[in-house]
Amino acid sequence: MDKAQQDALKKAAGIEAAKLIENGMIAGLGTGSTVKFLVDELGRRVQEEGLEFTGVTTSRRTQEQAESYGIKIVDIDDVDHIDVTIDGADEVDKNFNGIKGGGAALLWEKIVATNSNKIVWIVDESKVVDTIGKFPLPVEVIPFGAGHVVKEFEAKGYKPVLRLDAEGKEVRTDENNFVVDLHLGRIDHPQELAEDLINTVGVVEHGLFLNMVDKVIVGDPNGPRVMTNSNK
């Protein structure tokens, strides 16, 4: 699938998901290429249809995009709940286990998701997999002692790689932390891995989002299709 086709599927999923936002809602707005299309459509609805809602964003990038359309964005601590959060995902399997954090926003994304009544992911069909893990699993670590965390992950066979930018500098998250990507190939026991990672000193958060999502809207060449998590 070329980029233009993929973008068309992402856009269709984003436009479909935008229908979930109604007047007066508090909506969590995720981060990434598919969410960008969602925010464009919400911006259009605000400007053309008079839609009024309050947004909580999972990154500074999304906040800037949303505010450029006149969407009201507030701090997560200024709301007592979030009605629905719409976000992308890097991979999702049939058990509704997902990997997020390709855009290095996993910590804020997880905080917003955890405070949401409903979670919806929008993805193109290439993100739906049988078993998660082919996409490298992002882990947010504090810079102090990060090298030791990487060594610990190496010893466990997690194949860690410190994420660098185009200039060879460490990628920094919105909280100024580092990201270590684990090249696992496949994750057969995500729950155990999640426990191990979050209990590693120096790790702030990991990109495993396990059985958290209520619905996944998949951009499909035949039109968006919805996967509904019956365990939620």
UniProtKB/TrEMBL annotation:
Q: Where is the active site?
A: E109
Q: Which UniProt keywords apply?
A: Isomerase
Keyword Isomerase part of the UniProt annotation = yes
List the catalytic activities from the record: aldehydo-D-ribose 5-phosphate = D-ribulose 5-phosphate
Instruction: List GO terms (cellular component aspect).
Output: cytosol
InterPro entries per the UniProt record, alphabetical = NagB/RpiA_transferase-like, Ribose5P_isomerase_typA_subgr, Ribose5P_isomerase_type_A
Q: Name one Pfam family in it.
A: Rib_5-P_isom_A
Task: Name the domain of life this protein comes from.
Answer: Bacteria
Pathway assignment reads:
Carbohydrate degradation; pentose phosphate pathway; D-ribose 5-phosphate from D-ribulose 5-phosphate (non-oxidative stage): step 1/1
Instruction: Extract the CDD domains matched here.
Output: RPI_A
Annotated residues for binding of substrate: T31, G32, S33, T34, D87, G88, A89, D90, K100, G101, G102, G103, K127
The terms under GO molecular function for this entry are:
ribose-5-phosphate isomerase activity
EC code(s) of this entry: 5.3.1.6
* UniProt-listed GO biological process terms: D-ribose metabolic process; pentose-phosphate shunt, non-oxidative branch
PANTHER family attached here? RIBOSE-5-PHOSPHATE ISOMERASE
Describe its partners and assembly state: Homodimer.
| Family that this chain belongs to | Belongs to the ribose 5-phosphate isomerase family.
- Function of the protein: Catalyzes the reversible conversion of ribose-5-phosphate to ribulose 5-phosphate.
Please identify the protein, giving its name as recorded. Ribose-5-phosphate isomerase A
Q: Which organism is it from?
A: Bifidobacterium callitrichidarum
Q: Quick one: which gene encodes this? A: rpiA
